[in-house]
Write a sequence for this structure.
């Protein structure tokens, strides 16, 4: 006798036939979207196919209970999920068990044609036992951490209000840095001689010197150079030393002269 001969044809009025009609015409339409998208409807359909005439999930010939691994294979799910769906069906009232469910023994499940299944209880159980994804969320999605967005280029700039910047003397990050010529060391702006040093905001306008096109002329006399610069200089900030010609000195020098005046005296 083959396997097909072991399963009897479901007659009109039998438990599997009534179970299948209720599942197709009433139960699936009363289920929520979450239950319909889960593996529970497919499991119930396969239980109807595996059940004998009395509704037991067992072979018809010897009434031997069908193993849960075979039920899971028929329902296209893992054994763990199959146990979850069976427990949800038991909570809904459409499946029950006969005998004790012991470890190492095959449980005997029986399908029931319940007039009012409790699908809310089944959904609550499936949601409470759903497996969560093992992937951790991206660090920048956590507002408690100071990570920046991956689409943002460069290091995050400090956001300071004007009052904090003036009272605490915070200087902004320089926007341009270049490599020095081969005779120097480190990184600095190629347009500024000497070591890079930030100027206060009051001296920012003095840093840019006008460039004159054409052949270079002789350096002006110190007195003339001093008078031309004093006419357009802003008020002297505290803590800044100047050359007699009016150019601010980034670093104090022994003679108190800038590089241009020192060269002029050396060639005079």
């Amino acid at each position: 006798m083959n396997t097909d001969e072991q399963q009897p044809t479901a007659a009109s009025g039998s438990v599997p036939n009534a179970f299948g009609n209720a599942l197709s015409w009433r139960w699936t339409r009363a289920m929520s979207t979450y239950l319909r998208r889960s593996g529970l409807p497919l499991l119930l359909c396969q239980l109807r196919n595996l059940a004998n005439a009395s509704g037991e999930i067992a072979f018809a010939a010897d009434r031997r209970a069908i193993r849960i691994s075979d039920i899971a294979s028929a329902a296209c799910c893992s054994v763990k999920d199959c146990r979850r769906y069976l427990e949800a069906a038991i909570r809904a009232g459409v499946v029950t068990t006969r005998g004790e469910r012991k470890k190492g023994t095959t449980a005997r499940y029986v399908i029931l044609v319940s007039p009012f299944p409790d699908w809310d209880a089944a959904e609550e159980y499936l949601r409470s036992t759903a497996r969560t994804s093992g992937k951790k969320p991206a660090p920048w999605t956590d507002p408690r951490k100071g990570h920046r967005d991956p689409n943002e280029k460069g290091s995050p700039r400090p956001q300071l209000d004007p009052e904090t910047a003036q009272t605490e003397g915070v200087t902004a990050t320089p926007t341009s840095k270049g490599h020095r010529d081969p005779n120097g060391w480190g990184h600095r702006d190629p347009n500024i001689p000497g070591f890079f040093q930030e100027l206060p905001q009051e001296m920012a306008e003095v840093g840019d010197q006008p460039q004159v096109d054409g052949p270079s002329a002789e350096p002006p006399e110190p007195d003339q150079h001093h008078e031309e610069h004093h006419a357009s200089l802003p008020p002297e900030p505290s803590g800044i030393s100047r050359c007699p010609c009016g150019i601010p000195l980034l670093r104090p020098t022994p003679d108190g002269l800038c590089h241009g005046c020192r060269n002029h005296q050396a060639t005079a």
Notes: The domain at 3-128 is CATH 1.10.10 (Arc Repressor Mutant, subunit A). Residues 15 and 54 are 6 Å apart (CA to CA). The longest strand covers residues 95-98.
